[in-house]
Amino acid sequence: MTALLPTTPAVPATPLRVLICDEMNPGNLVHDGFELDYEGNMPREEILRRLPDYDGLITRSRTKVDRELIDAAGPRLKVIGRGGVGVDNIDLDYASLRGLLVLNAPESNNVSAAELAIMHLMAAARGLTRSDSKTRQGVWDRKFLGLELKDRTLGIVGLGRIGSIVADRAQGLRLNVVAFDPYVPDSKFERLGVKRAATLDELLPQVDFLTVHTPLTDETTGMIGARELALLRPDSIVVNAARGGIIEEQALVDALHSGHLFGAGVDVFVDEPPTPDHLFLSAPNLGITAHLGANTREAQERVGAEIVARVLAALQGDVSKGAVNAPALDAKTLELLGGHLDLGGKLGRILAQLLPGAHDIEVTFQGEFPADPAPVVTAVLVGYLSGSTDELPNMINARALAKERGLNVAIREVAESPDYQTEVIVKVLSGGPTSNGAEKERTRTVGGTVFGRSPRLTRLRDYRVELEPQGFILIASNQDKPGAVAKLSNLLGTWGVNIAGMALGRAQKGGEALFTLTLDDGLSHEQLQAIRDLDVIDSAYLVRV
């Protein structure tokens, strides 16, 4: 099956048919070149019977788009649209295998989710939940003293689409706003008028209120725990209207019981719906809503109209918005570039950890590639953006997401590679003019090649290496003197961390050297700092590929 590629939309010569089988507000159902049939809550048997006559299918969460339904659709079906954010009801792997494009409309609820976060902040500041409960119990308590928002500082973790709206609304309430998001370039902070915190630990002690707006990933799960909450100012307020688990539930309740937090608001739980004995339900000064971020009339109207528009655009060839999966590339391209696509994704993931928040990315192809290497650029972007955007990047939407993030992409081609048959070199740049006008720009460069179909790292900064990019890789620099590797190896041994592979490189004898170790296990922040504290180590970074 071939991938759907963006083209200039054109009115189909013969009408394309789209079935909308779940309850929603699809907006206008009359579009030139299309026939839209809307029947909310259509029985599954009816969907199975009628679907072979349609080019597109639009659902909400009710209809299970599983193997049975996809097989019943037959070859005519090309696009599946899911109104809203989640796609749990769709078998993405099987849809991709069949070459079906899956779309959603995650932006539809951005304003609603942001406004709910602000609502929780204001409710916690004025003790709304507490006062409501007491008044219903017959207690007229007018002694409670709330907090004003004006001139206080709001901290935002995650300055994506929703976080940006929260920042705008907060500034309208005369709040000072500071944010932590290592994946967003400085230009966006400047455009929004938001102060940048370089690290989470830098953010927390300077804010009165904290709200989180990040995707739930391995990196963000539990990122706000007991240690982080303790760094907040006394009488702070914490809000989570993003994803359950970003803030550790037990730690949040403990901070409320201890009085360190003035209050909190949550719209999300790790497990939903919560059990009757869930610890949140008896926590003091905690406002709770039932995952209502998207539940406004306006958001629900937008989601129907937007998913219809995206499905129709995709059927005309424009797949730049809302793509959740990437239908398989044709077999010939995969055969010729499969190893390089894998390499590109790995190089992107490594650079995302070495230098997040870049504003420029440059991909250089050296040597003669077996096919047009343009898809490798997209694979690099998928790797670089993974885990850092509101929308999951893939081979279809990665370029659009990069543009939205303000990431400029440049491509260079060199006819020959001095050391390998082909080599892919990726450089990212971050930073810019400082307050005194001087340039303060940081760069990171990685490169790789493919042996057979197996990716290999060939370059880190200006150093030549040869290492299989997998698992955990410790990248350390030192002065080229005996004993550095031995000291580091001994330290890893005391922790029971096994070294699976090693590569060494140096610019010149006695100068700066760089070595990389492939580890079987990851390292804690404390362990990584202990490595950096070794007198033979100049710098050390851990990346996970």
UniProtKB/TrEMBL annotation:
Domain ACT spans what residues?
A: 473-545
Q: Which InterPro entries match?
A: ACT-like_dom_sf, ACT_dom, ASB_dom_sf, D-isomer_2_OHA_DH_cat_dom, D-isomer_DH_CS, D-isomer_DH_CS1, D-isomer_DH_NAD-bd, NAD(P)-bd_dom_sf
Q: What is its EC number?
A: 1.1.1.95
| Top EC class for this record | oxidoreductase
Q: Which domain of life is it from?
A: Bacteria
Pathway of action:
Amino-acid biosynthesis; L-serine biosynthesis; L-serine from 3-phospho-D-glycerate: step 1/3
What name appears for this protein in its UniProt entry?
Answer: D-3-phosphoglycerate dehydrogenase
Q: Which organism is it from?
A: Deinococcus oregonensis
Gene (name only): serA
